[in-house]
Prior knowledge:
The complex is a heterodimer of chains A (about 180) and B (about 100). With about 180 residues, chain A is mainly alpha-helical. Chain A has three domains: about 1-85, NADH-ubiquinone/plastoquinone oxidoreductase chain 6, subunit NuoJ (Four Helix Bundle (Hemerythrin (Met), subunit A), Up-down Bundle), CATH 1.20.120; about 85-115; about 125-165. Chain A has helices at about 5-25, 30-50, 50-75, 90-110, 125-135, 140-165, 165-175. In chain A, helix 1 packs antiparallel against helix 2 and helix 2 (about 30-50) runs antiparallel to helix 3. Chain B has one domain: Helix Hairpins (Orthogonal Bundle), CATH 1.10.287.3510. Chain B has helices spanning about 5-25, 30-55, 60-90. Chains A and B meet through helix 1, helix 2, helix 3, helix 4 and helix 5 of A and helix 1, helix 2 and helix 3 of B.
Amino acid sequence: MSASVIIFYCISALILTAGVVAVTARKIFRAAIGLLFSLIGIAALFFWMDVNFLAAVQIVVYVGGIVVLIIFSIFLTDQSGSELPKPILKRQIFSILSVVFAIAFVCNLINRTSFYHSKDIFDTSVKRIGNAMLDTNSVGYALPFEVVSILLLAAMIGSIVIAMKSKNTKQEKLK
Amino acid sequence: MLNEISITHILFVSTALFFIGVYGLLTRRNLITILMSVELMLNSVNINFVAFNKYLFPEKMDGIFFSIFIIAIAAAEAAVAIAIIINLYRSHQSIDVEDASEMKY
């Protein structure tokens, strides 16, 4: 058993336990911290798979952006110390049953499939990614890149408009 | 350079993570925690894309690009969702999905 195998199992254990904490913790702040560690574990898994650029993006966008946004919204909305209500027992049991069945089903399916492992070298240098991203020929990604940038602009304006306090709601509160 | 872990093990991990997210989606009643479950599911899909790219088609880069675009779209989705949640909290003083049922009509 080599070091990389041990590292892989450690990373997967971190991802799965933190993920379980994120969906089962009764305190919402604890759930957010569980999500944080799960995302860090996924970034580590990307490092382990030699995709350094994607791991960096994962840390910058998810750990530095989305989790911080979620924690801010927890502070803005809920009392971060209060406990979430316990899920209904019947719903919990059936959810666990369906999830366990689904995991077993999919893992069985994966186990039966034989994958052909290619022996080529996996080159993911930032130079190659950048060249492909702004390339306009058939293997380039210039069009999706532009579309995503417009989508991000639209999402930014949309979220500002939605979260903005309108004058009507202020007047309603005064009444 | 390549390690002895086959793609099957990575797929097991991402499957388990995806269904952990599904479990959270089914049991949680709080909008922020539901959003967190959705993020977990999106991330497990990213793991799948990168693993298939690395082990089966290392000469191409489509999996990496799909992951990058998924991350970008997830960031946009989280921003809009949190704006909606804050707006909902302002009008209902609660972010429980049961209290927001009038949005259906």
